[in-house]
Amino acid sequence: MSDNENLWYEIPSTAWISLARRGMESISLAQCFLKNCDNEDIDLLEPFKKEESDDNKKHIKKIHIKCKKCGGIFQLKFETIKRVAKPKNMNKDEVEDDQVLSIGLVYALDEENNNLGHIGYF
Asked: Which residues lie below 8 Å from residue 28, measured CB to CB, with a gap of 6+?
């Protein structure tokens, strides 16, 4: 298995879209998010590069993907905000990292890092 095939393991299969008071709905991340492309065939998508950055507030991972149907390149940007909430009964200084709530956001970007939109949560 090549390194590019291993990048699929870095991508969640679905993201969740908030439907306001109607709950959440899942959306597959195995599709092309470029304008005017309707590719939903995972065999026509090729992840080829990963970038990661990390600080004390968030972790960002970008996976670059080539669509073999439209020939375009897009990125899935996974942003994990590490400390969204803490337990109510603890002081801020005594909370461990595994006791805090984090949230993951998924965005689609084009080849030049232009934001194509917020896809959902993971």
From this structure: 13, 14, 40
pTM for the predicted model, two decimal places: 0.85
- The structure tokens 């984090």 sit at 102
Per-residue pLDDT, 5: 67
103 sits in which H/E element:
strand 101-110
- Average pLDDT taken over every residue of the chain: 90
d(CA 116, CA 108): 5
Q: Which two tokens stand for residue 17?
A: 């879209």
User: Which structure tokens are listed for 65?
Assistant: 């993907």
In angstroms, the CA 40 to CA 31 distance is 4
DSSP code for 98 = G
Rounded Cα distance between 48 and 30, Å, is 14
Of 102, 114, 119, 113, which is closest to residue 54 (Cα–Cα)? 102
